[in-house]
Amino acid sequence: MATTETRPLNEVVFLTVAEVAAVMRVSKMTVYRLVHSGHLPAIRVGRSFRVPEQAVHEYLRESYVGVESA
Prior knowledge:
about 70 residues; alpha+beta; 3 strands; globular
């Protein structure tokens, strides 16, 4: 999943796995699975990952499932 808008790195806000989990209201393990499967882009900093905030918003927007009324 690539970001359609290219921003200078000094403007990109990176979130920790714990912060992403809090935003998405899922466990940290779920975030790790999304990162390792390639569904959520991330960079590795030492032994931890950082996820661009915009990528989280794009993932949630693309994953949204609307409920149709009968």
